[in-house]
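Customer escalation, tier 2.

The customer says the design service returned an amino acid string that "doesn't look like it belongs to this structure." They asked us to rerun it and document both sides in this ticket. The original structure tokens are below, unchanged.
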């Protein structure tokens, strides 16, 4: 009888049984015990392999998560090993400090389709020229904005200069040529962040650039910043495209405003404003409105985006009949049920696209910065030779000023009745708006006051220099005073302003604050200081969240009055009154600022540039600044908030779970209700929603992006005030005087009668740490180090040069030179 199999019968051939093939899962010649052992070994091996793969994947994910979509993924030299916990503020601070900055700009996207043949290029040039001609023909019957309207005042506040309009004509033809080529070669943008890329050279309306670099021995800046960098003369100069730190994300890959990550329209900018940026008044007890005032003044020194306009600078009305809409219109849509604009029966808020900047090649649309990138006082003087010349007195090195009947100096008056500021009722009283180095000087009373004290500071410096050097001519006095003023602005920016935004410890550790020594050289000709597009159109608009709805105004030294913020816009006429400049400045130095967060008060989201007169029936309504900011970012093709987190190599915010760890809870809930995906969130909205880092008022992304730009402005400026090498340097004795500079000291020096002020006017007064001090305690500026006789006294030797001339040689032991 055949032996029956049991559970212990081996499934293998034996010496007693013939070898027969078993099923495919049987291992021939293996006992059940050894099979189980080998299976366990195999499973362990597979587990080990899988764990290794997962570990490698995690390392790769961590490494690549900080890289931009188009950045070289092999460049990981500046990446920390591990991403910080997004909820741990101390880790985030340490992480950003460890980042190698300035950050590497994302590589330009190469041309994405086949190279166009010559006939297509020629057709495209003809098409671009026709498109420009059609636009200019349309503008001959252009419907402009009413002069008294808020939209007109907004347009005039950021108007485009003659030079800007001239360049934008070329830019307009260029991007229409790109559109024609894309259509001819059947380009269609894939869904997601893509653009057509940088294409070949193309020329329109070219005029030779006749600018020439000054001699290497020149110690003064050019008016337009040209040749600050002798290796790359255009870097940081006026009238060049904004720098693209991150490649643009246009709806069509070329020029149309950004779409969602799924290729749909984004939520209306006004909808985002109403749901996420609603007013919640939370003051910051540590800082004053002077922080926002100086921030705006500084912003205007380094950024001035050119707007599209008519041929002679006429305004464009975008809220008109469809057949009359200008091709550069991108109005903010208002939806039924709007709690403010419904009352006025409006469905549209005027918005004109930024003027296209010429790049000299086919590719995606860029925008134009009309200001120099450098902190050089161009907001006081202007960024062109013509503007600087217009503002100069042309004697004794001073700026032109308007002198009142009581012998006070005000800014020179504006003679343009259609500047959006001048009013007939005020003009009849002999009160006019003002002219300055920047066209936005009249935008609000606080800003105008800052313009005034800095113009007075220039004249104070010029007169002091003349007292020490009576033989100096007007040009020498003007340029030396301008040079000192720029240095003082830089010193205030990096030692009073930025430490508040970024945190004092962070600013010092990152090398932003002054080192106060004579042994460091920060200049690096390879650093591009040009203003980033994201900085001008989104990130540096954070100050709008700081402004309270009511600002203190002192008519005497003890009792404040309160003024609604919107009534201060385009209303500089108060400065004609005695002591008004003191009242405005003391008010700004005593009014607490609001916290940096998504909340913006209704003075800016409903009443911007509103100014009603008895003749306005029905009354005019204001604009929403938040909607305009969001719309501007989309107009510029700024990628979403999550992309900029990757640019700064921060923990990602690509999913709702990730986003919940990076922004405050209220903002998170509102964003989830408004945006279809976290990949769609606008940079302006996302960045403002992050909780502040330890010791700062900025969250991680604003800290990264703002510090990066200001590190560039310091390292990329060959005229930086603390340089220790080069002909542009100050002497040690001169630098010591500049180091004494404070905004409080400049206010004391140039006000009409301020006697006391806290030492740090951007900080709230505190009896222990920031008390009121007499102006005399802030110190006086000593002009002696600029005296030629003083400088000559430092030279103790005379030697004969190769050409037989006597040459003075400084004493090498002197620490004063």
């Amino acid at each position: 009888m055949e032996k029956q199999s049991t559970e212990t019968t081996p499934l293998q051939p034996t010496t007693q049984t013939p070898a027969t093939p078993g099923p495919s899962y049987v291992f021939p010649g293996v006992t059940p015990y050894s099979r189980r052992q080998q299976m366990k070994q195999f499973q362990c091996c597979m587990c080990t392999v899988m764990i290794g793969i997962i570990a490698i994947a995690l390392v790769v994910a961590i490494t690549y998560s900080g890289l931009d979509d188009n950045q070289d993924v092999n460049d990981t030299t500046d990446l920390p090993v591990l991403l910080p916990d997004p909820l741990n503020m101390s880790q985030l601070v340490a992480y950003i400090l460890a980042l190698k900055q300035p950050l590497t700009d994302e590589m330009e996207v190469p041309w994405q389709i086949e190279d166009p043949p010559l006939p297509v290029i020629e057709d495209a040039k003809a098409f671009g020229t026709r498109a420009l001609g059609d636009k200019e023909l349309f503008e001959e019957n252009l419907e402009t904005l009413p002069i008294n309207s808020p939209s007109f005042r907004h347009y005039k506040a950021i108007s485009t200069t003659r030079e800007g309009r001239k360049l934008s004509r070329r830019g307009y033809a260029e991007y229409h040529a790109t559109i024609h080529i894309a259509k001819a070669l059947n380009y269609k943008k894939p869904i997601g962040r893509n653009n057509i890329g940088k294409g070949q050279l193309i020329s329109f309306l070219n005029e030779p650039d006749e600018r020439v670099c000054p001699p290497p021995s020149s110690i003064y800046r050019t008016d337009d910043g040209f040749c600050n960098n002798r290796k790359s003369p255009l870097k940081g100069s006026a009238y060049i495209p904004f720098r693209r730190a991150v490649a643009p994300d246009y709806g069509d890959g070329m020029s149309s405003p950004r779409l969602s990550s799924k290729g749909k329209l984004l939520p209306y900018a006004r909808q985002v404003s109403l749901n996420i940026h609603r007013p919640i008044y939370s003051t910051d007890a540590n800082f004053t409105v002077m922080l926002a005032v100086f921030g705006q003044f500084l912003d205007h020194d380094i950024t001035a985006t050119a707007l599209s306009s008519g041929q002679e600078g006429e305004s464009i009305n975008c809220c008109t009949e469809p057949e009359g809409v200008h091709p550069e219109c991108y109005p903010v849509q208002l939806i039924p049920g709007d709690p403010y604009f419904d009352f006025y029966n409006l469905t549209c808020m005027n918005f004109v696209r930024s003027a296209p900047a010429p790049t000299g090649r086919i590719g995606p649309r860029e925008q134009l910065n009309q200001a120099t990138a450098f902190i050089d006082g161009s907001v006081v003087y202007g960024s062109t030779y013509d503007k600087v010349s217009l503002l100069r007195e042309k004697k004794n090195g001073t700026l032109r000023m308007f002198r009142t009947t009581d012998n006070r100096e005000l800014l020179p008056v504006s003679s343009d009745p259609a500047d959006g500021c001048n009013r007939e009722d005020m003009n009849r009283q002999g009160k006019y708006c003002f002219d300055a180095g920047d066209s936005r000087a009249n935008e609000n009373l606080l800003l105008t006051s800052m313009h005034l004290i800095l113009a007075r500071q220039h004249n104070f410096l010029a007169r002091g220099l003349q007292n020490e050097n009576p033989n100096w001519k007007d040009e020498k006095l003007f340029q030396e005073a301008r040079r000192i003023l720029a240095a003082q602005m830089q010193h205030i920016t990096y030692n009073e302003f930025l430490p508040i935004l970024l945190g004092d410890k962070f600013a010092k550790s990152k090398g932003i604050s002054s080192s106060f020594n004579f042994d460091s050289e920060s200049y690096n000709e390879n650093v591009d200081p040009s203003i980033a597009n994201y900085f001008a159109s989104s990130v540096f608009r954070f100050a709008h969240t700081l402004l309270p709805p009511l600002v203190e105004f002192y008519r005497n030294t003890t009792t404040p009055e309160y003024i609604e913020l919107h009534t201060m816009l385009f209303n500089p006429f108060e400065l004609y009154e005695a002591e008004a400049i003191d009242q405005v400045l003391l008010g700004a130095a005593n009014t607490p600022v609001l916290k940096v967060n998504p909340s913006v008060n209704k003075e800016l989201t409903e009443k911007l540039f509103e100014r009603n007169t008895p003749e306005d029936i029905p009354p005019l309504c204001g604009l929403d600044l938040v909607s305009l900011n969001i719309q501007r970012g989309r107009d510029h093709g700024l990628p979403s908030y999550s992309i900029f987190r990757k640019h700064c190599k921060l923990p990602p915010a690509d999913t709702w779970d990730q986003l919940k760890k990076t922004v405050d809870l209220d903002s998170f809930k509102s964003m989830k209700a408004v945006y279809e995906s976290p990949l769609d969130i606008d940079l302006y909205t996302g960045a403002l929603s992050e909780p502040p880092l330890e010791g700062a008022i900025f969250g991680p992304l604003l800290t990264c992006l703002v510090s990066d730009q200001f590190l560039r402005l310091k390292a990329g400026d060959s005229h930086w005030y603390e340089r220790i090498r080069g002909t542009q340097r100050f002497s040690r004795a001169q630098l010591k005087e500049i180091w004494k500079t404070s905004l409080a000291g400049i206010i004391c020096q140039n006000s009409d009668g301020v006697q006391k002020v806290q030492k740090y006017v951007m900080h709230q007064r505190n009896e222990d740490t920031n008390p009121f001090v007499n102006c005399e305690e802030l110190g006086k500026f000593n002009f002696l180090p600029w005296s030629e006789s003083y400088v000559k006294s430092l030279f103790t030797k005379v030697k004969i040069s190769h050409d037989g001339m006597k040459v003075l040689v400084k004493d090498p032991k002197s620490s004063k030179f």
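Tier 2 assessment: The sequence is consistent with the input. Confidence is low (pLDDT under 50) at residues 1-40, 51-77. The two ends are 117 Å apart (CA to CA). Sent an explanation to the customer and offered a walkthrough call.
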